What we know:
- The chain is built from 7 helices and 9 strands, in the order H-E-E-E-E-H-E-E-H-E-H-E-H-E-H-H.
- By secondary structure, it is of the alpha/beta class.
- The protein has a single domain, classed as Rossmann fold.
- The protein has a 5-stranded mixed β-barrel with strand order 5-8-7-6-9.
- The radius of gyration is 18 Å and the shape is globular.
- The model has no long low-confidence stretch (mean pLDDT 91).
Amino acid sequence: MTGREEALAAASVIRERVAAAGYQHLDAMPVAGIVLGSGLGGLAARVAHAARIPYAHIPGFAPSTVHGHAGELLVGELAGRPVVLQAGRFHLYEGHDAATAAFPVRVMHALGVRTLVVSNAAGGVRRTFRPGDLMVIADHINLMFRNPLTGPLEKGDERFPDMSDPYDPALRRLLHAIAASQGLALQEGVYAGLLGPTYETPSEVRMLEKMGADAVGMSTVPEVTVARALGMRVAGISCITNPAAGISHTPLHHGEVLKTSARVAKEFEGLVEAFVAQLR
């Protein structure tokens, strides 16, 4: 089960492990929960005084099986402010249902998180994108055909959450302002979430382009859906690791995704750290 009661139980275990490690970060409400996408796990090294909890020690958390996902939850300080950071997510293509993929967001909410920062590696559908571009997510298209809210209503959830602005406009403006101050070119666009694990065919990419997608990946949508049902604010960043199939004639592979993510990691990390520093 991956509902509210299970999230509260998991949060209790996390609090105990953080206290046992001698840290006090959960005495204050975390300013953000951060979900790291493929190849973007380097931000974890910037979390100071971190209590690192392997997923195997957290009830309801699944193993992380994808290369580039560490599989641990960090509780510590980023830019001197308390955060909860998920280094490695759960994907539907690994065999998980949508509720399991989004369960860590419920746990973060139970720990006091009210602002969620999601990141991912994505293929570029917009033809002007180049590998290494960072894109603020303005909206998403759920083509996973799964919804983590299906089933009985969880206490505290909105039954019919408003998704007219799933990615908070004020947080998007803040990301752009920080990027400008850092001299970082930041794109903005629509993310399409597909089930995977295959990369898209050229015909599918042409379909996505006609539907208004700017980037495509295999994650993020379940977490954002649950966050909105819980009333959390959300900011999202995609790292464009490659042109999608048909736009580039180069074969796609996960190693290239990780390579490109690593190349822009410092820019991504600096952006998110400054963002956390300015959160209100």
